[in-house]
Each structure stands twice: as C-alpha cells, then as structure tokens.
Design brief:
This protein is an all-beta fold. It is built from no helices and 14 strands. Strands 1, 4, 5, 7, 8, 10, 11 and 13 form an eight-stranded antiparallel sheet that branches.
C-alpha cells in the first residue's frame, strides 16, 4: 500500500528492478522539491505470542539531501496498532522498539519537512545495509502495520534522491 501527503503530490512508491538488493525488485521512492512525504505501508501483520519480542529485519539504501550540520530530508519507520489510524516512530516511547543494527543516523531539523524532529535515516547510504529492530514483548499477539515514511523539506532535491527497501523479514 502507498500513501502520499504534501503540497505537491509526489509519485507513489513503486517496484523497481534497477538496483535491488535481491532480485527481482525492491520498493523505491524518489524525492521531490517540496514539503512532502511518501509512505510504504505493510499489510496487517499479527505478531505471534511468545516470551520474546519480534525481530524485524530489512535491507535498504538511500540518497537524502543533508547539509553538513542540518538534516533536511530523511526516512523513518513507524508502527500502528490501531489498524493504521495513527503511527508512531518505532523508537518512540509509545512503541519501544530498539535498533540492534543499522539504526537511525540523525534527527531531521528542517521545519518544513513532515518528519521534522524525528530520528531518521538521512544523508547518503549508497549500498544496501541491514537494519534490525527488536520489538517489545508487549506487542506480541497484536496486529500491527509498519510504515516506511520518507520526508522532504521545501529545498531543491539533491541529485537522484531516493530510498530503496528490500528483503523484509519479521
């Protein structure tokens, strides 16, 4: 499922066979030169009840605009437990997830970016890396939706801005 917000509707997320981590393709979104966000939303996932929390792993690469000290554009992972009505950053107090590998690279500080103030992946990661997230036991037995959300500010997009997500396992 894809979702768009912003003043200038950007193209939705798409499948691409250009540079996936694993064949035949990856989820892909490109950047825009406006205050906008694009979201890739998972289908409903029922977390199995167990004595340990679930472990989410995925591979991704990105090219987000960022200055030397200010992070303008970036991507976040959010989670919903209410059927997709509300989402919270996976590392927020509300969710309580913890990255064990490939965690966020900074905090978005461009006020016109829809994900402003959130910890996010930003700058450039040209080759695929693995991000692994430990979800708390409290989520076991619940139905969740995951949302990978890319956000851009009002400045001009960098050269070939994009985010690729592939090889998701839970």
């Amino acid at each position: 499922t894809t979702q768009q917000t912003g003043t200038t509707p950007p193209a939705p997320w798409a499948r691409t066979s250009n540079g996936p981590n694993t064949l035949p393709n990856a989820a892909f979104t490109n950047g825009v030169a406006s205050a906008a966000s694009k979201s890739l939303i998972s289908p409903a996932i029922v977390l199995t009840a167990s004595s340990t929390g679930a472990l989410l792993s995925f591979r991704h690469a990105w090219n987000f605009e960022a200055g030397t000290s200010t992070l303008y554009d970036g991507g976040v992972l959010e989670l919903s437990t209410d059927g997709g009505t509300t989402y919270n950053n996976v590392t927020s107090v509300v969710v309580g997830g913890t990255f064990t590998a490939g965690g966020y690279t900074g905090t978005i500080s461009a006020t016109s970016n829809p994900v402003n103030g959130q910890a996010a992946w930003s700058r450039v990661q040209a080759t695929f890396i693995t991000s692994t997230l430990a979800l708390p036991v409290a989520l076991n037995g619940q139905t969740i939706h995951l949302r990978w959300r890319a956000g851009w500010d009002l400045s001009v997009a960098n050269t070939n801005p994009n985010w690729r997500i592939d090889t998701i396992s839970l």
